[in-house]
Batch of 4 targets.
Target 1
Amino acid sequence: MSARELGDVARAFKALGDPTRLAIFEFIRCCGANVEMEGDSLDDCQVAQTCVGDICCRFEVAASTVSHHLKELRAAGLIHLEKRGRWVFVTADEQVLGELAGFLRQTTQTARVETVR
């Protein structure tokens, strides 16, 4: 892997290193995500079935904290935000997840080879 690719992997793992952020990311990834936020505020929102306000209640964190976690996940390339009208849709980046999975697979395969020697 190149230094740039390793930097991308490190940023993703760092972002997922916070337990609350990891739980929020898993919620977005598993639940369908398309989390929708109205405008720039996380206070008023709708999601296919769940809203960001539900994330705040589910994880017992303030809306501003959820906003911070979403910002960090986005900066790490783990989620995409897409604005449609006054709504912003948040989805997990499946390509990045595949790259992280590939990295972990490669790492475990290398570790197995080292153990066998």
Target 2
Amino acid sequence: MAISLKTHPVAIVFLMQIALTAGSSTIAYTVLGPVHAFSVVVGGSVAIMPQSLFGFWVFRQRGARNARAIARNLFVGEGLKLSITATLFAIVWLNAESLKAVAVFAGFVITVLAGQLSLPLILKGK
């Protein structure tokens, strides 16, 4: 069964996180400059990539008959998400001396919160 972005529950979260990261980066660029804006994008990307993978991993199967598989996917997906997030932060801090740490974390936190707060949008679409 092919995954369609139009019907997949993760699509709303993904698009909302992309839009919020872009908006936050634009505000950071206007107020603080290009280094802060890039830092916000990096932080947002560190949140978006693992969260999207998690969402697609967990929601690969649907329906009450697949409850055990979905629960298993939830635990495996959460482990993958945390591992990938830690790895991405390690890569960021080892390779980017010019980033602003506060802006990286701000981009990360804003993006994660957007994902958490988008649940009502997902449920509204059902």
Target 3
Amino acid sequence: MRAAARPLSVPAATLVPVTEIDAKTDALVPEWLHLPDIAEMLDVEVTRVRQLVKEGQLIAVRRGENRALAVPAAFIDGDKIVKGLTGTLTLLRDDGFTDEEMLEWLFTPDPTLPGTPAQALSENRGTEVKRRAQALAV
């Protein structure tokens, strides 16, 4: 008689929260970067980029044929994370948004902004984006 197979356990601290993205949301994001590319841009190890995702400073989703982790390119400004992004993500998370809902909100054009919230963040208009994110909680 064979013993029942025991499930493998992985310490929760080693897992990075990752969203599977749907085609509609995927299409909203104009360009994606893989974690090794971001690590190179930020001049850090890939493990540090994974930590940034785990801490909620970046959103990574699985996409493409090999389901590789990717982050919207709009979240990176040269050698740093776009100013105001982390605070905006925190506000949206506090409002109960999922990663996919945050991506949809950040990359959906808003004629009153104008442009998308992600675009406004990259243009240093983060105060207005954060104000709008806070208003979503009401």
Target 4
Amino acid sequence: MKIERNQGVAWRKVGDEMVVIHLARHRIFGLDGTAGRIWESLSEPQDLETLEAIASKGAPMGADVINGVHLFVADLAEEGLVDVAGELSEASKGDTVVDFPRIEWREELQQFAGQCHLVPGQSHQCNQNPGGS
């Protein structure tokens, strides 16, 4: 199974947080540090094992890394931020809260216009007009 970023997504690292914008859905997301590192690794399609290895390096003591990564990727896919080739295994939150890695916040964009100034290596999508004109 391969996971890759959706083509209609822009992003930028802001401090310790990765901010991701879904241009077509007009939604903005904040990813925590480990989730941001996973997002950066998706510059090329990755498999779940690679993402699990990235997450395990920053995992809090006792974190269920495998379940957490599966839930995180499922959340990204549900929001339309990534495309998943293949089927995700059935990860379950069960009775415990799995919050590693995670989308820390999400908001609707009320207005989206203007032009971003990009740092090399970050999203080229900010230079495109999301309205298509």
